[in-house]
Each structure stands twice: as structure tokens, then as C-alpha cells.
Amino acid sequence: MSVELLNFIETVLNGLMSGVMYSLVALGFVLIFKASGVFNFAQGVFALFAALTLVGYQTGQVPFAHLINELFGTNYHNWYASMPNFLAIILTMITMIALAWIIERLVLKHLVNQDPIILFMATIGLAFALEGVGDLMWGSDVKVLDVGIPSGGSVWLEEATIGLAAEGSDYYGMYIDVLNVWATVIAVILVITLALFSQYTKTGRALRAVADDHQAALSVGISLRTIWILVWAISGFIAMVAGIMWGTESGVQFSLSLIALKALPVLILGGFTSIPGAIIGGLLIGVGEKLAEIYIGGYFETGALENWFAYVMALVFLLFRPQGLFGDKIIERV
Amino acid sequence: MRIKQLLIGITASVIAISSYVEIAIADLKFPMLVYRTGAYAPNGIPNADGFVDYYKMINARDGGIGGEKIFHPECETGYKTQVGVECYEKNKKDAMVFQPMSTGITYQLIPKATADGVTVYSTGYGRTSAANGKVFKWIFNAPVTYWDGASIAVRHILKNNFGNIKGKKIALVYHNSAYGKEPIRTLQTLSKKHGFKLMLLPVDHPGQEQKATWLKIRKARPDNVLMWGWGVMNQVAVKSAASIKFPMDKFIGIWWSGSENDVLPAGQGAHGYKSLTFNAPGDSYQVHKDIKKYVHDKGEASGDGSHFGTVLYNRGLFQAMVQVEAAVVAQKIHGTSKITPAMYRDGMEAVNLSAKRMEELGFKDFAPPFKNTCANHGGSGLAAVQQWDAKAKKWNMITEYMYGDSDVVQKLIAEDSSKYAAEQKIAERCN
């Protein structure tokens, strides 16, 4: 095989793996949008908040330590040295469920029957508020997140593919980050679990009913508020998974909230209401931006196509299929 | 309703009186443009803490500068240029000096501050050609510029290649902003001079995703990678380099890509990563002892005190020290403790931080000596290389402080500043 072809395959594979990381964020958006029609702008901050909380529990950091010390002249920072990963993840999940409940009580409950744009604006406010609370609670330092997921280039793949190139060619194997492989496995498990949950459980069917028609769901006795709490809790859990993956890759810091911006083109491509759409959209965006950066990036003086090419793809897609690949077609009757 | 109005009136009066009293007591105003929130907060906080602790120490230990207390209001920019300019406009009245803490903000403030008669001090960042004091009367960027930095990095690579880098490949991974683009011109000139091939790899804000950039590096296999990064871009780059097994001792960051924050997330993978620096790390200097005694031990530390002695905290100390020293010099020149912004500028231009003076200020061996002159606002142009020891979790200085390629840098500075002078119709001074 020629080195060029092998490099092309490597770029595509890495694009697919990056796409899975975007999909992890996009999944949370889709779930909430399907169930409540709310485009949750705070989903990226959810991922940040979950990752901050997880590191906080792992390292025994006292929440709001800075505030407490400032107010009472104390010097509290940590109340224990470390916590096992499993326990810290469970506690973070409980925190995210509590957060979902608080959001429902404080925000959503008061905005029932409001226009979607009002709900969207509320989530923008929520994003800023939650970012501020996260800062007060856990501080702004870069935090190292390690839950035992391996990262770094796969030596096995490198060695297995080095012989694929023509003899004598300057090739040193294919590169894939093991962390991205793990992200892919976790995303697949997540999607299968979500599909099984919504197909075969009573709650899952209630969730689908709410997604299809709020009024009809209410008329058969489904509690809209319970479903909303559930959906926000699930997307909080997905945000935690995304936060773990992204936080392991770059350290936990406040720029993590900006990963939400990567989910937008994914949603435009895949559709706002489709879980498979979030996955396929992520994969397409991931591959598209990596190919663009590597093969045509050199022709642009300003470069850095990797960051904005996804939006170009999304814009082009909007022109031809505004509802996305798998989204519901919007039909307005007049 | 009347009670409500009364309460509002009282509150407004209290605020007005308290702000008046504060300014009246504190005669020397050193506004701080900070970013304690947002994507760049992990870098902005330790730096700002260094400034604040130093000012507090001077106020507590010496009673201020020549008896005048330092007033240091903070304005949050979030590293956003537009907000930085707003912060400048809000705080420029009676301000001695602005430290923009962003090259983008610095570029915007250069014409404004020049018109307003306010000193801008961009320590080791900002517009490199502002080092030419003949053109940029109000702007200072000592002790070293980005163009010095680029040429010092190349000099270090030359030294490791026995003086010959002809045919070698050097990649520049840079923040796609005014800051990141600053060294390109120098590196292009140096690539012609030394015969190395330059690869330019921009990374957009914030730099969370760099996979394609590092795949390119893996394919092109440059002999060295230089980095002009900030914030999360640094952490992702160091981690990505480790992931593709790029030799870390051939990866050199500028002084803003060499803090503990940048390397810790990569764990052992960051071992051997190098960066330039113009100040030493550590907390064993006299200035640290004084800050501990007069500030931290009294529970007055800025933030939670956890950044004490880190690279960016120490840089904040250094920056604040130069700004305070400029006021001391200005007071001496003009024979009054109550200096004006114009007098302060004179002081900044006459700053002479010799080794002896640095020792007196508690900064012995902390940074190389430098002095500003009418023509030279860029300082000594000295920087050293430090290397990260991941096992000990500390930076070690591995070279002496060295000069860049002054032939190349001075020529570029003269060219760029002349162009600016012609555009702005500025007559050269100091002749």
C-alpha cells in the first residue's frame, strides 16, 4: 500500500474518533431537545461542571473553599487525600441528578408553555450561572483528571500497520489515541443502553411519548415534570461521560465548556431529534474537518481549518436538508 | 416608596464617598487588567495574584511608594480585546501604567494610550517593535521581546546542532491571534539566514482540538517544534506531542507556554519539555519571604495563596516590581512623591535594574539585569531555557540567560517601527 493511502486512512480514522468525542456532547443536546423541545445551550457547561465535580470528589477538595475561607477567615482546602474513582463517579452522578432536579424546580417549572426562544435564553443564562457556580465551588485552576482510562498513541496499531507500506518506504505505522478508542467503545455502549431503555422500559416509553406529544402524554397520566427531571439527569450523566473524556484529554479547565460549540454543527448535520443522527453527524464532522485541515489547510494563509470547517459543512447542509440527516421534517400548516 | 428612594440615595452616597476616600488615600493608581474567569483564567489567576501580593507587600512593608499607597483596582477582561479596551477607558484617569496582559489588547491600546499620555507596559509580550522608544514613547516591553524569543529558541537549536541547521525542519505551532503570529516574521527571516525550513501551524482559540495539527507534525516529522500558545492550547499541545511520541526535548515553548499548568495534565509524558523564560521559578527569594511575612501570614494573600512561587505568579511579581520601580525612579527624577502619569513615564524610561538593585529589591538572581533608555524600551533581550522534570514536578533552568540574534531583531524592529511612525506621522525622538 502507498504511504499516501495509509496516511489518508489514518486521517479518516482519527477524524472518526474525534467525531465520537463531539457526538458525546451532541447526545445530551438531542435527549433534552427530543423530550422537552429545549435547546440546552448549557450542555457544554454541564460537561465542565461534571468534570470539575468529579475531580473535586476524587481529590477531596472542599466545595466553595475559597468563599468559606474569605468569609470566615478559615483555611480549609481538602478534607481527605483521595477517593476511589468508582465512588467519585457515583457521587458525581448523584450530583448531576440533584442538579437536574434543581434546574427543573428553579427554571423549567416556571417556564412551562413559554416560547422555545424563551427556554433557549433561559439555558444561556443557566450556562453562565453554572459556570460561575463551578468556579466558586471548585476554583479555576487546571485540574488533572485520571479515572484510569489509558491515553496516548496505540503502540499495537503502530506495529501492526508498519508492515503495510511498500518495502523501503518511509513509514512508521498508523497513529490512533487509545483514549479515543475508549471514547468510541463508551459511546457505543451509551447509545445501545439508551436505545434499550427507551424501547423496553416503561419510563423509556413514557419518555418517547412526551417527546412525541406533550398533551397526549399528559392525558394518559405521564408526569411531564418527572420526565423532564429524568431527561435532564440522563443528559447530565452523558455530560459527565463527555467531561471525563475531554477532561482526560486536556485537563479539566473552563475552556471545556466551549466544546458545546463543536456539538452545534454535529446537530445541524445529524438532526436535533435523532440519537443515531448525533453519532453519524459527529463522525461526518470529525472526518470532514480533519481531511480539510490536512489536505487543503495549507492553501489557506490563515489556516486552522480544523476549528471552523465544521461550520462550513453545517451551513452547506442547511441549504439542502435543514432538518438534518435524521431529524424530523418540520411541516407548518397554515 | 419614599423609604426605598431614601435607601437608594444612601447607598449611592456611601459608594460615592467610599470611592472618593479610596482614591484620595491611595495616590498612585495602578489599574490591573486581569482575567480571573473564562477559558484563560488558569493562567490569568496566578499572574494577577503575583501582582496583587507584591503591591500589598509594598503597601504593608514600605507604606507604599515614597509614602504614597498603591491603589490597584482590577478590571476583568476575560482575555477579550474589546473588554480590555473598555477596562482601559474606565480606568485611565490618573492611571500610572497599564499592563494589558494580552497582545491583542496591547495593540489596541498603543494609539489610545499614546494619545492619552498613559504608560503601557507589556512585559515580554505585545507589539515587538514597541521596543523602539524613538517611535513608541509611551509603550514599553522590556525585558525581552517575542522576536528576541524566536531568535533565542533558534539559537538554542543551533547550539544543539553544532551550529548548523541547514535543511532542518522547524515547525511553529501558534495561537491564531496577534500574539501567536508575532514571531512569524522573525522566524521567516531566520529560516533564510540559517537555511531551515519553516512550517506554520495555526491553532484557533481556544485550542482544545489539535488532532489534525499533530497528525501533520507526525507526518512531516520536523526536527524541532516551537510553540506560541496560551491557555488550554498549551496543555493539549504538550499532551498531543507526548501522544505522538515527539521528542519532548525538541519541543520549545515561548515563556507564556512554560508554566506548571501547561505540563501537569500530560503527566510523565511532558518530561523533558522545554520553554524559554526570563525569570526564575521557585519561592526561596527574599521577595517571597517578605510577601509571606507581610501578606500571607496576615491572611491577606490574593486568592487562596496556592500559586505562591509558580512560574506565572513569579512573573506577576517581576512585572509588578518593574512597575513599582518605575514610580520610585520617577519620584527621584521629579523630586516629589506625588507623581503624575507623565512623570511616571519618565521613571519607566529611566529604570535601571542592575544586579545590585535587584538584590536590594529582594530579587537577587531572579532575572537578568536590564535597563530602559530613551531609544530602548525592550530591555536586555535576555532569556534562558528551562526544562520540565515530570518526576520532581519542577522546572529546571538548563541554560544561562542568552541574547537572541540582535542583527536580525534590531533590523526588523527598525523596519516595523519606521513603518508605524510613517503611518501615524510620529517624529522620531532621542536623536
Account of the 3D structure:
The complex is a heterodimer of chains A (334) and B (431). With 334 residues, chain A is mainly α. Chain A has one domain (3-257). Chain A contains 13 helices and no strands. Chain A has helices at residues 3-36, 43-59, 65-72, 85-106, 116-138, 155-161, 178-200, 202-212, 214-219, 224-250, 260-270, 275-296, 305-320. Chain A is globular, with a radius of gyration of 22 Å. Chain B is globular, with a radius of gyration of 22 Å. In chain B, the strands form 5 sheets. In chain B, strands 8, 9, 10, 11, 12, 15, 16 and 17 form an 8-stranded mixed beta sheet that branches. Chain B has a 3-stranded parallel beta sheet with strand order 5-6-7, sandwiched between helices. Chain B has helices at residues 2-25, 41-62, 81-91, 103-116, 146-160, 178-181, 184-194, 211-220, 232-243, 260-263, 286-294, 311-334, 341-349, 355-360, 406-424; strands spanning 28-29, 32-34, 70-71, 74-76, 97-98, 119-121, 139-140, 169-175, 197-203, 224-228, 251-253, 274-277, 352-353, 370-371, 382-389, 394-397, 402-403. Classes of the chains: A mainly alpha (334), B alpha/beta (431). At the A-B interface, helix 1, helix 3, helix 10, helix 12 and helix 13 of A face helix 2, strand 9, helix 8 and helix 9 of B.
